Amino acid sequence: MNRKILILTIVIILSTLVTIFFNNKDENTTLNENNIVTNEHVNEVPIIEEKEYSVTISAVGDILIHDTIYKSSKVNNTYDFRNIFEPVKQYIESCDIAIANLEVPVADESFSYSNYPAMNCPKEILDGLKYAGFDIVTNANNHTLDRGEKGLLSSIDNIKKSGLLYTGTSENEENSKPLVIEKNNIKIGLFSYTYGTNGIPIPKGKDYLVNIINTDNIKNDIDYLKSQNVDFIISSIHFGVEYRTKSNNEQKELAKFLIENGVDVILGSHPHVLEEAKLESININGNKKNVFYIYSMGNFIADQYYPNTNTGVIVQLELYKNTKTGNTINSYKLIPTYIDKYLESGKNKWRVIPIKDTIDKYLNNEKNISESKYKVLKKELDNANSILNYY
Questions:
Q1: How far apart are CA 67 and CA 80, in angstroms?
Q2: Alpha-carbon distance 164 to 161, whole Å?
Q3: Distances (CA, A) of 161 to 121, 127, 156, 157, 375
């Protein structure tokens, strides 16, 4: 009897061990080509769910408010710049993020409003930009220190109070990092640099006040943005030769440096006229991607009399993110603009108009402009498209 119990116990134990063995085999072993059990673990490849996101960007060139413009915008004891941007408002606010190059200080009135060469504009221009749909201003340029360090700090304070974001200047070292924003699940980094400040020295030990072009510092900013896991990097660069409609070697070399180090978009300013633009497919370390660059976006609003200074452009970009295939710039559009000076109640006024749409309305018998203005606009449009190589 005891022997039968012993045998039964042994059978139960062996059965249990066999069951455990085969369960472990199913979970942790595979069969080779001869159906022999091996000890290899199955390497499962994680399935990446494909998701697509996009964000639209609009960008414009120099916001250069001369005294003629701000004086004509005075209403009682304040200033109203909204009418200047009304004709182009739809092209700005229709995009997810809109960027303007603010090339004039907006320090308090105590610093005195003034014209070129040491400029200062009423801060109400910021309200006009907000009204037009702008979200961000870049303000590293040659006029940044026109009202000195205190004037710059006043400008920064007024920009902050307006609700606009900014990059290119800073009141201290801690806040001098590039701007990082997120929209539609796409993370974007933005920085701004200038070639100089019209000979006005930056106070010793305060290089953070305004970003001066330096490839080491730019590389540090790019590395910082990469550490923030941004999907796209946009650079606003104030460089080039004034009133020249072609980029020079210095601009091209800096653009090459930016692109090779990971910048996706280059928005150029300073010449006050348009220069070349291109969406280009490039190969970086074996990886293909699209980059966009425009060496100068020209004047968006200003009162200058040199050739080509009344023409600017609204750059529109679609940035595309795919969790499986990566990031790219899907498309771009260039909308040439014209600074239209006109009379209203015997007073000079300024506005920014979209050239092609204005021409189309005229040709559709909407008497929105005179025949002589139509001829001017047609010439300006042909010239702008030729410079931009955009047809």
A1: 14
A2: 8
A3: 16, 10, 9, 6, 42
Q: Where are the domains of the chain?
A: 2-38, 54-388
Token readout for 258 is 């930016």
Interior angle at CA 145, CA 98 and CA 235, nearest 5? 35
* Helix count and strand count (H, E) for the chain: 10, 18
Residues 6+ apart with CB under 8 A from 45: none
**Which residue's entry shows tokens 């280009």?**
280
* Alpha-carbon gap, residue 153 to 254, rounded angstroms: 29
Q: What are phi and psi of 55, to 5 degrees?
A: -140, 140
Rounded Cα distance, 251 and 239, in Å? 7
Strands (E), 87-183: 97-102, 136-138, 165-167, 179-183
Beta-carbon-side half-sphere exposure of residue 347 (alpha carbons within 13 Å): 10
Task: Say how many residues make up the chain.
Answer: 391
pLDDT above 90 as % of the chain: 82
pLDDT digits (tens, 9 = 90+) for 324-350: 888 999 999 999 999 999 999 889 999
**Residue pLDDT, tens place only, 280-330:** 998 877 778 899 999 999 999 999 999 999 999 999 999 999 988 889 999
Q: Which helix (H) or strand (E) holds 338?
A: strand 326-344
Q: Tell me how far apart the alpha carbons of residues 102 and 123 are, in angstroms, rounded to a whole number.
A: 11
Four-point Cα dihedral 47, 52, 53, 58, nearest 10: 140
Separation CA 38–CA 379 (nearest Å): 78
- Distance, in Å, from the CA atom of 144 to the CA atom of 194, rounded to the nearest integer, reads 9
Residue 243 has a CB neighbour count (10 Å cut-off) of: 13
Question: 186-194 and 232-238: which strand pairing?
Answer: parallel
What single letter denotes the amino acid at residue 134? Answer: F
11 residue type, one letter? V
Q: At what angle do helices 249-260 and 215-227 cross, to 10 degrees?
A: 30
> Beta 232-238 vs 30-31: how paired, if at all?
unpaired
This prediction has a pTM of 0.87
How far from chain centre, in Å, is Cα 70? Answer: 27
* CATH number listed for the domain at residues 54-388: 3.60.21.10
Evaluate whether 359 touches 378 at the Cβ level (below 8 Å): yes
Neighbouring C-alpha atoms within 13 Å toward the C-beta of 294: 33
